[in-house]
Amino acid sequence: MNLSQHNQFSSKASQLLSWGHWFTFANIGLALLISLSYLFADSPPTSFMGITYMLVTWLSHTSFIAFLAFVLTVFPLSLVFPYPRHIRGMAAVIATCGASLLTLDAYVYVNLGYHLNPSALPEIISLLWNRLTTSPALTTFLAGGIVLLILGFQLVVSNYTWHHLARLKQFKFARYAISFLVVCFAFSHSIHIWADANLKFDITKQDNVLPLSYPTTAKSLLAKNDLLDIETYNQAHSVKINNQNINYQPPAPLLKCDDFTQANVDIFVFDTDAQLVEFANNHKELHKTELFLQPTNHDDTLFGLVYGLPSFYKAAILQEQILPAWQSQRRSIEVMGIDSLSFINDQAHTNNAIRVINGAAEQAPRNNSHIFAFSLASDNAEVVTTSTLYTSDKNIAEVNGLIQPSDLITTSVGKYLNCSAIAKQTMLGVNLYKKKDDMGVNYSQGVVIAYKKDRITLIDSDGNFKNISAAEGFSIEQRLDIPFLVQSIKKLKTFSE
Questions:
Q1: pLDDT digit string (tens) for 275-309?
Q2: 392 and 406 in contact (C-beta within 8 Å)?
Q3: What are the percentages of helix, strand and coil residues in the chain, rounded to 5?
Q4: What is d(CA 150, CA 31) in angstroms, rounded to the nearest whole number?
Q5: Which terminus of the chain is less hemmed in, N or C, by CB atoms within 10 Å?
């Protein structure tokens, strides 16, 4: 094919390519504006180099995505179908779809902490559906308005750049801008290589902030959520999940429980399986389940049982001897035979609603009380293990999926005492009567524990991860589920922010 200047086809294609560059340049500006939301979705970097990396990556990576979209869509269309009016219209529609998709991804990232992802489709659909059902008119108006606004922008830019192409070609700033973006692109990758080699987590924790960027590792994920003790790592090359300086912030104001129901709950904790079996044999009305997930560290198990929280908050709470946020004269608790938690006993009541009893105390269940009974896990190689839970509530024994110690106190306050709002506001356990999905998070011995159905993911103090089967305990070869872990870590940090 003769592509000389005298060839009409060549002339149109050349003009369209020149127009396409300016059209793409305008869309780079729009993409940069939309992608600003990613930078404000997470805590900002604290070092000068971290801030520099954030800015140059935002400029170069976002520009690269916009340019790549042009190369893969408008550019080939301009070559095979060089009809200006049609190409400009199709380009406006394509760019509108791309910018709208970027806006949707930014909205999902701000709310859920991860990008559009097939593995997170149920969570994303749930987010959008809840938004739509909460305020359908407003949501429809905003979503439609954003799409129409983007489309209007594209049409105006498309027509303006075509009709003023000759004048735009005289401007030289575009060349300098393109050169600057290329330098930023190379500089950002150089910084990341240096940071990855020198363990600069203030930089590498920004992985996966922007769409289609570096894949997140377990170590980067922990750093991003401030769960790595970076100073200790730099000194001793030993990363530790940092919970020593966590500030526990109880919810305020505390919701009221106007529909309080008087009930008794007795939770028996035995030191050995033999004691548990003997207790169960003496109380034939108990039902059992084999999927009781508890930390092998006894103190962490007992803390979660009483407070309904992971031991992530244990140091801060026990140091100040903070009472459970849900406790009051009408929702009182008594701990028997557990010295480390005896300070929370409500001495004002002789008949406390909830009792947590060490089996060695040889206390009998009260009449018409809801009973839970389990034995503390024996030490083993893993941080968590599944064991047997006995309960007088048949519905609890038939719950699908894993049950954690924090779920017992949450169910007791939320269901038996009829204070579901209090339970939801102050605990991270699950009311087993309202369990919608088989997911949960815990923390013990410096390890983040997240489970989803039968799969338990453990992220240790080095940022390494392992998947194990909850029922059988064997290792599962599976990639790190970033969206699920982001969601779990956000839940873990509910009362620290």
A1: 999 999 998 889 999 989 999 999 999 999 999 99
A2: no
A3: 55, 15, 35
A4: 11
A5: N
What is the rounded distance in angstroms from the CA atom of residue 277 to the CA atom of residue 387?
Answer: 12
Interior angle at CA 183, CA 179 and CA 184, nearest 5: 115
Query: Which residue's entry shows tokens 């006995």?
Result: 390
Please calculate the CA angle 356-454-110 and round it to the nearest 5 degrees: 90
Domains of the chain, residue spans: 8-215, 265-492
- The closest of 432, 406, 379 to 494, measured between CA atoms, is 406
User: Cα–Cα–Cα angle for 203, 208, 212, nearest 5°?
Assistant: 130
Please state, in angstroms and rounded to a whole number, the distance separating the CA atoms of residues 371 and 397: 12
Q: What are the distances in angstroms from CA 286 to CA 264, 289, 389, 430? A: 16, 10, 10, 21
* 50, HSE (Cβ side, Cα atoms, 13 Å): 17
Give the tokens for residue 56: 């140059």
pLDDT of 378: 79
CB 322 within 8 A of CB 248: yes
Look at residues 340, 329, 268, 267 and name the one whose alpha carbon lies nearest to residue 303: 340
CB 116 within 8 A of CB 105: yes
Provide the pLDDT confidence category of residue 214 given band limits of 50, 70 and 90.
Answer: low
Closest CA to 370 of 262, 484, 270, 265: 265
Average pLDDT value for residue range 269-278: 92
Helix (H, G, I), strand (E, B) or coil at 481: coil
Give the DSSP H/E element, type plus range, for residue 357.
strand 354-358
**Tokens 């009311």, residue?**
431
Which structure tokens are listed for 139? Answer: 């949501």
pTM of the shown model: 0.70
Residues 6+ apart with CB under 8 A from 416: 261, 263, 265, 370
pLDDT of 372: 95
In terms of Cα–Cα distance, which of 209, 189, 205, 191 is closest to 39?
Answer: 209
Q: Give me the mean pLDDT over the 28-52 stretch.
A: 89
Q: Hey, is 214 helix, strand or coil? A: coil
159: which 2 tokens?
């027509």
